[in-house]
Amino acid sequence: MKETSAGYLTWSCDYRPRPPGAGVETTWRTPLPDGALDGWALDRFRAGARHATLHETVDLTGASAPATALRRLAVVRELTGMGIPVDWSVRLRTADDWRRLGHLTPPRHLRLPGDPEEGAGYALRAWRAAHLPGMCIWRKGPGFVEIRDHRGDPARVELLDGPAALSAQSMAADGATDHALPADLSADWLRRDLLLAVGPQVLWLPCRPHRWPFPAMLF
Length: 219
Known about the structure:
Layout: E1 8-13, E2 27-31, H1 40-46, E3 49-54, E4 58-59, H2 66-82, E5 86-87, E6 89-91, E7 109-111, H3 117-130, E8 136-141, E9 144-149, E10 156-160, H4 163-173, E11 176-177, H5 183-191, E12 195-198, E13 201-204
Parallel strand pairs: 3-5, 4-6, 6-7
Antiparallel strand pairs: 1-2, 1-3, 8-9, 9-10, 11-13, 12-13
């Protein structure tokens, strides 16, 4: 990803570690992270974050800056996996595009090209009604990645255990160009909505959970 990932998050907390005698800072602002995202949301949670607001719109229409858009979406994905609610806005190409994103925290605002309010409102209501924690997750084991996808019917559970697949998944987790991944894997993951493409850029969509909202056996 070559474009700037400029953007800001405002955090709110109900607890934040502080030196003895120091005042309680209940909100603070940070730029979007520039480096690897693995463990980033967990660090924010340990710092006391319990809610976030992403100030910039995630534009997935491909109209401009696709790498930046996917970087912002990756931040939403990481916060969803951490169980930190996030207020965010998204622009989609069609009213049905929400379905591949339904496992992510539903946005506060959803917009469509030409701003057809009826279609955007329907998509947002459907997203909010369908969303549940843990709908599409991945977990890392020794030499494999397990994917549990409950977005469709029937639900799918599968393992990635080949070196090429593991390398491609790791690369796509923070966003990559499509041609950087093996063509067969990229095509298969795009077909099954494990990857999202915006222009020449792709992003791994399943969340990596760090906090279980329900007993683990439900997944």
